[in-house]
Design brief:
Layout (H helix, E strand, L loop, with lengths): L2 H10 L1 H9 L4 E3 L5 H17 L14 E6 L8 E9 L6 H6 L1 H10 L16 E10 L5 E6 L9 E5 L11 E4 L8 E2 L9 E4 L5 E4 L15 E10 L11 E2 L1
Antiparallel strand pairs: 1-9, 2-3, 3-4, 3-5, 4-11, 5-10, 5-12, 6-9, 6-11, 7-8, 7-10
This protein binds fe (ii) ion.
Fe (ii) ion binds next to loops.
Length: about 250
């Protein structure tokens, strides 16, 4: 569907929309963002990744923006091989990025029953914050194990912005979802273009099948599968509602 129809469904027929999400229905919102704008954003993230060393930081008030290589880390909540970048909404230097993705944060706040502008510029000690996650699954087997995500009040839906062109950036593997645990995986990428928004329940089985597994693995190549996920999440300060994803 188109962006205007999607936003109308969310804001004016909210119960109907959530019933469809839980059915489960996968929505592909075509050109939620202009293709060129998303590809430019991806290019900037890619270049920034080459200029700084990968690192990891817990989500406390001193957490910087950072990027990290996930390589089958044994203690990971969900095993994966990917390069992930994290931008935080409380930093002034990210203002343009968070304005750009604002409509997605607003939808999440609305579905949580909160003011549409909540959380976007909060700091970790406030409890929950806004973050833009960028996942890069390189060719040569970038993947994410099948899992389900916790359905917190801020994550009643998952919203994934497509940032790769299937058939060009990669031709095998990619993001999939299953209608039920026993269902065949539905491969989503062939049905999308960069800038499209995928919307589905966090609670359905999903993952990323290995990207072009026969190619050489190199995260310093701007190919493979890229996706952008604006999310609201609890910080790492102790919080009763801080729940983690679960491998299945
Ligand atoms: Fe997930």
């Amino acid at each position: 569907m188109g962006k205007a129809d999607f936003l109308q469904l969310v804001y004016e027929q909210t119960d109907e929309f959530m019933a469809q999400i839980e059915a489960p229905t996968l929505f592909i919102v075509q050109q939620f963002y202009p293709k060129e704008a998303i590809l430019q954003f991806r290019q900037k993230v890619f270049e920034a990744g080459l200029e700084t060393e990968p690192s990891w930081h817990p989500l406390f008030d001193d957490c910087p923006d950072y990027h990290r290589l996930h390589d089958n880390y044994p203690k990971a909540w969900v095993k994966s091989k990917m390069h992930a970048t994290y931008y935080h909404g409380w930093y002034e230097h990210n203002r343009a990025t968070f304005d750009f993705f604002r409509e997605i944060f607003e939808v999440k706040n609305f579905l949580a029953g909160m003011d549409k502008s909540a959380h976007i510029h909060q700091i970790p000690s406030d409890g929950a914050i806004a973050r833009v996650n960028i996942h890069h699954y390189p060719q040569g087997g970038g993947y994410q194990t099948e899992h389900i995500d916790p359905m917190t009040q801020f994550a009643k839906i998952q919203t994934i912005v497509q940032a790769s062109q299937y058939g060009q950036d990669f031709s095998e593997g990619g993001v999939y979802a299953k209608a039920s645990a026993e269902s065949e995986p539905f491969m989503i990428d062939p049905h999308t273009e960069p800038g499209d928004l995928m919307v589905m329940s966090p609670g359905i089985h999903h993952g990323v099948a290995p990207i072009d597994p026969d190619a050489a693995y190199d995260w310093k190549q701007n190919a493979g599968r890229w996706m952008v996920m604006p999310i609201i999440l609890y910080s790492d300060y102790p919080h009763a509602k801080n729940v983690k994803p679960k491998q299945v």
